[in-house]
Amino acid sequence: MIRVLLLVTVGVVSSVEALKCHVVAAGNLTVPDTSQPQECGLGSMACVKIIDFTRNTYSKQCQNMNCTMNGLPNAVANCQNTSTFGMNGATCCCYGDGCNAAPHFGSLSVVGLSVAIVSALFAI
Ligand SMILES: *[C@@H]1O[C@H](CO)[C@@H](O)[C@H](O)[C@H]1NC(C)=O
Ligand SMILES: *[C@@H]1O[C@H](CO)[C@@H](O)[C@H](O)[C@H]1NC(C)=O
Ligand SMILES: *[C@@H]1O[C@H](CO)[C@@H](O)[C@H](O)[C@H]1NC(C)=O
User: 65 C-alpha to center of ligand 2: Å?
Assistant: First the structure.
């Protein structure tokens, strides 16, 4: 019975093409994120992660447009530092299921970039 359920679940998951992202409304940077990627709504293009170093918090969500960089649309996956109103933060954007997983984003750009390239290849 369990095996059947598992097969059904895998079948359903792999037949759905919606993007999956980690979705965390308000996370604590000192606590590892154990969330599972969730299916984004139709039209979602990228996953984002917004980090607030001042408060040591983060949030993660789906984004229904492509990544931007320096205000330009359709950018590759990237992280940008933001410091406004005395708040130090970073915004990371990436393409691909569950790509906004890691709370640290040092290696993310490399992974995100290759995912972006792969998605770009598939888009052609
Ligand atoms: C984050 O977690 C740490 C350790 O559990 C705690 O000391 C801190 O108050 C938490 N910060 C926030 C913003 O919840
Ligand atoms: C995002 O980028 C893809 C591939 O470059 C493009 O086909 C799509 O129209 C873009 N979507 C938006 C909402 O900008
Ligand atoms: C962004 O901020 C982090 C943490 O303060 C720092 O380590 C990193 O070098 C900064 N990156 C850029 C591109 O400014």
Answer: 7
